[in-house]
Amino acid sequence: MSKANKNTSFYNLIPSLDKLMREDVLVVCAEKFGHQSIKLIAQEVLGYLREKISASDVETISVLGKESAVSDIAEEICARATNALKSPITPVFNLTGTVIHTNLGRAALAPSAVVAMTQAAEQTTNLEYDLETGKRGDRDTVIEGLLCDLTGSEAATVVNNNAAAVLLTLNSLARGKKVAISRGELVEIGGAFRIPEVMTTAGCSLFEVGTTNRTHLNDYASAFELDEVALLMKVHSSNYEIKGFTSSVSERELASLARQKDVPLISDLGSGSLINLSRYGLPSEPTVKDVIADGANIVTFSGDKLLGGPQVGIIVGSKKLIGQIKSNPLKRALRVDKTILAALLGTLRLYQDPASLSHRLPILRNLTRNADDIQALAHEIAPKFVTLLSGIAIVTIEDCMSQIGSGALPLDLMPSSSVVLAPVAEKGQRDIALQKLAKSFRCLPKPIIGRISDGRLFFDLRCLWDKDELLAQLDFLK
Question: Rounded to an integer, what distance in angstroms lies between the CA atom of residue 39 and that of residue 21?
């Protein structure tokens, strides 16, 4: 028999597309990813098999000759589909040592918030519909009352992040006017979010007072004598700190001056804690309620940092000023959707029961975790690392310090424990080996993200709660 005839007979071993698509594994796969998507991938695999037969590939022909050939091909199609069609946004293990990690999505939502979010996503809702009157409603209504109760404010509104909250507030209350702010608070918060640039974008003019390290009340007062100032602004140091010979002006002092000059005081709290963290043994952080009580007319803060909710920017304060902010056409462009509002509401409700908050709110659960428990966890999982990385890396357990967050209290640290990997390599190859080792963990089905420091890879276990899931992922390193 000629080579051409042999190849023709081998082509007959390739199952038809219809037969493949009837395989149970592909029926399930098609329900998950869509029939047409799976069909296209199946056609690609069949084309690949034909090319291999044309090239007289012995291994491919041997596989096609097996009884299990059809199911094996179906499994291969399903594997390719799962890899190609899975969401690029994937869960990861945050073992970086930074609890509120901006690049890893900041706060994980509480189960109650996830349930509320899912319910809103799956169904139509009364987002902007007043069930009592049968007329159009206000989407802020569902959360405004609760936010006012928790912060002591008169009114509230929500936009898509805190940068938007600051932008909208300034544009609504001081467009075309001057805003006085301390030079020490003209910061870049992250992602090139710089206060001076936000002011310019909002249509305001910046009036700098004081110096980088020291600003006094009379610096603000002098601003009114030198120029027409329409608003006082204070930016809280939630993610930066100036040390040494320093002084700043409190909200209470600024509020008194603002009342005398009949201008609003805006306070950007950034991380936006709703509770006194010191009761949990954490560093003290001004609460939104404290700042409102001190006299700030408007307070802006994030929802996905210390609050532990979804990404939103929350604006609370004077009913009159909130009304002006909500009437700004920009508000519509910056508003949040029904799923985010539902998740925020599900999170805020947890704060109505402070006694259970540290157990029910994931961010607080991570921040208050006992150091001894973390160390015990390290000793439980380290042996698996030792076994799998024999000859590749030296594995040790070391005490370390976790960071609260890159956007919230970045200088405040908490005791923790890490599994530490030091690659076994020649001196000139250690950095390459370290990067390769870190990448191997990032490429797992559920990536494990650590922190590289001092030529080693640290896995801080403060945020690891499901050790069995992590150990299962390690098996893919083989």
Answer: 7
Cα separation, 468 vs 478, whole angstroms? 17
- Encoding tokens for residue 7? 């190849």
- pTM of model > 0.90: no
Region of 243 on the Ramachandran plot (φ > 0 left; ψ -120 to 50 alpha; else beta)? beta
> Hey, what are 395's tokens?
């594995």
Q: What was the pLDDT predicted at 282? A: 87
458 SS3 class: strand
Q: Burial of 4 by CB count in 10 Å (0-12 exposed, 13-18 middle, 19+ buried)?
A: exposed
In contact, 207 and 179? CB cutoff 8 Å: yes
- Which residue is associated with the tokens 């700042």? 291
Q: Could you tell me how many helices (H) and strands (E) the chain has, helices first?
A: 21, 14
Residue 230 near residue 260, CB atoms below 8 Å: no
Show the DSSP H helices in 1-68 as ranges. Answer: 3-11, 17-21, 24-33, 35-54, 58-64
Q: Which residues pair with 72 in a beta bridge?
A: none
Indicate the Cα dihedral angle 90, 105, 335, 181, nearest 10°.
Answer: -160
Question: Could you give all domains of the chain from N- to C-terminal order, each with its CATH number?
Answer: 3-85 (no CATH), 93-102+366-477 (3.90.1150.110), 111-356 (3.40.640.10)
What whole-number distance in Å separates Cα of residue 478 and Cα of residue 474? 8
Residue 407 pLDDT: 56
Side-chain half-sphere CA neighbours of 332 within 13 A: 4
Within 62-149, strands assigned E span: 93-94, 98-100
Say what the pLDDT of residue 344 is: 97
Is 142:162 a contact under the CB 8 Å cutoff?
A: no
Quick one: 150 exposed, middle or buried, by C-beta within 10 A (0-12, 13-18, 19+)?
buried
Q: Residue 401: which region, alpha, beta or left (left: phi > 0; alpha: psi -120 to 50)? A: beta
Question: Mean pLDDT by 10-residue block, N- to C-terminus, for the chain (478 residues)?
Answer: 56 87 91 91 90 83 81 90 83 95 93 96 93 92 95 97 94 94 78 77 88 87 87 80 74 94 94 89 90 97 95 97 97 96 97 94 96 98 96 96 74 90 92 96 94 96 96 89
The answer to whether the beta carbons of residues 232 and 264 sit under 8 Å apart is yes
